[in-house]
Amino acid sequence: MVKSCLIIIYDNIDISKFPKLIAFLKRTGDGYQAKKSKILAKSEIDRFLSSADDKEFLMIKVGLILGIAGACRTDELVNLTVDDIEM
Fold first, then answer.
1. What is the pLDDT of residue 16?
2. Comparison of pLDDT for 86 and 36, the residue scoring more
3. Is residue 20 within 8 Å of residue 27, measured between CB atoms?
4. Helix, strand, or coil here: 10?
5. How far is CA 76 from its chain centroid?
6. Dihedral, CA atoms, 58, 61, 63, 67, nearest 10 degrees?
7. InterPro entries, alphabetically (predicted)?
8. How many CB atoms sit inside 10 A of residue 78's CB?
């Protein structure tokens, strides 16, 4: 599977012509497990929105609401600035 993913030509270099590199990548990739994303439950989100102090967490609350109900893509949410929000 690794070889099929790596045979893509990148910068005009065909990786399939380097069998030692493919073997090295296979050896170093053994046992790798991706990290699981932490997911908040609805009750945790409701508790945060109702109990967290507005003076300290207002921007985080706005970001949370926009992320859930604002139909933002991940990159749009990351690039969001205070100037983008209109009242």
1. 73
2. 36
3. no
4. strand
5. 12
6. -170
7. Integrase-like_cat_sf
8. 9
What pLDDT, on a 0 to 100 scale, did the predictor assign at position 2?
54
The pLDDT of residue 11 is above 70: no
**Overall pTM surpassing 0.70 (yes/no):** no
pLDDT tens across 18-62, in order? 888 778 878 887 777 888 888 889 999 999 999 999 999 988 888
Q: What is the SS3 assignment for 15-63?
A: HHHCHHHHHHHHHHHCCCCCCCCCCCCHHHHHHHHHHCCHHHHHHHHHH
Asked if 77 and 67 count as a contact pair (C-beta separation under 8 A), the reply is yes
Strand, coil or helix: what is 75?
Answer: helix
Q: Which residues pair with 13 in a beta bridge?
A: 10
Q: Could you tell me which of 38, 37, 85 has the C-alpha nearest to residue 62? A: 85
Q: What are phi and psi of 38, to 5 degrees?
A: -85, 130
